[in-house]
Specification:
It is built from eleven helices and 20 strands. The chain has about 450 residues and is an alpha+beta fold. Belongs to the class-II aminoacyl-tRNA synthetase family.
Length: about 450
């Protein structure tokens, strides 16, 4: 899939997110078969859009799909009403969302770093590829749902190494409780404090200054929801990692929940974060429709769980179509204990790229994520890792220099040094053109 930038006379293929002066006449960008207005925020690349609609979480023999199904099975079994699952599952939602969905509906401040162009893939200033599945939370609440799982691919600009990839997969969930369900044995208790009127929620200014609860909620409601949330998530982790898994809760901050926590498990002699969760901010519920409920929410990454469960060493393997990888997960019971065994270990090649920055940039203002995207676009999936190796300011000329170490490795065959050198030369040439640097 290509992104095509349309001018009045011709099409230009976008090679990287940094626009040269030649592209200033660009007015539209086409993503996933739809045309959008382009502007100064547009930084989406052809390499990134090539991952849209791959839906690894729905591919039967992919390890991400096995973990997804285990989580869905847990919630189906744990929450039933009249023999039917209480939770509904949405696993094919479009990854193209508005900034309102991704940020505003979730109370993310305008100056929050997660909104930065260096963090997100923007189609334009008001449309982007979702950075989290939580972006669909409010639309599903507005449709009248109260217990649901959202599963899909999310997109974030990030560093390049064996555990980071610009596309990964998340499971997010929401569970609402009304008074009659939450306090079924204590009808005298209430979700809301006496000074909060659920019929006029926008007349109340909700505060999160109390670390134990939101000002609109009673402590009893918050603690009961906290207990349910933690018990449900501990149960899920035990289903995945075994009854004897060690775990701990860590206080956290998220703009859309309060109070908030992260759940960590003790895995291979280290504490590993597996999810974030909390009591949903009441403003989100009130803006989306429900005014008489309290809710919890959580989100987790499928890649992190799959890599831990199946001992998969490199996140790029999730995208492999090689039979040697996929056959290890083919036709397996979702609860089977599987340990990935490398079919072959191919050697890596490492080349350094050093360059002088133009006078308009410094070692502190140059965005590494811009460079990472360029490297991905040119090198594709043979790029295993990119590290900032050195920063240097010339003592006399005061010119600023950066050196990046690029590790090349193919997952399915041995790369020749000649192949690597050609890709490296192409990356150097594209870097000069994109950032006006001088190769050292």
């Amino acid at each position: 899939m290509k992104i095509l930038l349309r001018t009045n006379r011709f099409y230009l293929t976008l090679l990287n997110k940094t626009y040269s002066t030649a592209l200033k006449s660009v007015t539209t960008v086409q993503v996933n078969g739809k045309e959008y207005r382009a502007d100064d925020y547009t930084n989406i690349t052809p390499k990134i859009t090539s991952y849209i609609n791959r839906n690894l979480h729905l591919k039967k023999d992919n390890p991400l799909s096995l973990v997804r199904q285990r989580i869905v099975n847990y919630f189906y079994a744990s929450f039933t009403h009249g023999g039917n699952p209480v939770f509904s599952v949405y696993d094919n939602l479009s990854p193209i969302v508005s900034t309102r969905q991704n940020f505003d509906d979730l109370l993310i401040p305008e100056d929050h770093p997660s909104r930065a162009k260096s963090d997100c893939y923007y189609i334009n200033a008001s449309v982007l590829l979702r950075a989290h599945m939580t972006a669909h939370q409010s639309e599903l609440l507005r449709s009248g749902l109260d217990n649901f799982l959202m599963i899909g691919d999310v997109y974030r600009r990030d560093e390049i190494d064996s555990t980071h990839f610009p596309v990964f997969h998340q499971v997010d969930a929401v569970r609402l409780q009304r008074k009659e369900h939450l306090f079924v044995n204590h009808p005298d208790l209430n979700i809301f404090e006496p000074n909060y009127d659920p019929t006029n929620p926008h007349t109340f200014t909700n505060s999160i200054s109390d670390p134990s609860k939101q000002s609109c909620h009673t402590l009893e409601a918050t603690k009961l929801m906290e207990g349910q949330l933690k018990n449900h998530l501990i149960g899920m982790v035990k289903v995945l990692f075994g009854e004897n898994i060690k775990y701990r809760w860590v206080d956290a901050y998220f703009p859309f929940t309060h109070p908030s926590w992260e759940l960590e498990i003790y895995y291979e002699n280290n504490w590993m974060e597996v999810l974030g969760c909390g009591i949903m901010r009441n403003e989100i519920l009130a803006n989306a429709g429900p005014t008489n409920s309290i809710a919890y929410a959580f989100g987790l990454g499928l890649e992190r769980l799959a890599m831990a469960l199946y001992k998969i060493p490199d996140i790029r393997l999730m995208w492999s179509t090689d039979d040697g990888f996929l056959s290890q997960f083919q036709d397996r019971d979702v609860n089977a204990s599987i340990e990935y065994k490398p079919v072959s270990i191919y050697p890596h090649c490492t080349n350094d790229l050093s360059f002088w920055l133009p006078p308009t940039l410094t070692i502190d203002t140059f965005m590494s994520n811009d460079f990472y995207d360029l490297v991905r676009d040119i090198g594709g999936d043979v790029i295993e890792q990119v590290k900032l190796k050195d920063k240097f300011i010339h003592p006399k000329s005061k010119k600023h220099s950066l050196c990046y170490s690029i590790v090349y490795r193919h997952l399915e065959r041995t790369l020749t040094q000649a192949e690597v050198n050609k890709v490296h030369e192409d990356i150097a040439a594209a870097t000069v053109k994109a950032f006006n640097v001088a190769i050292r």
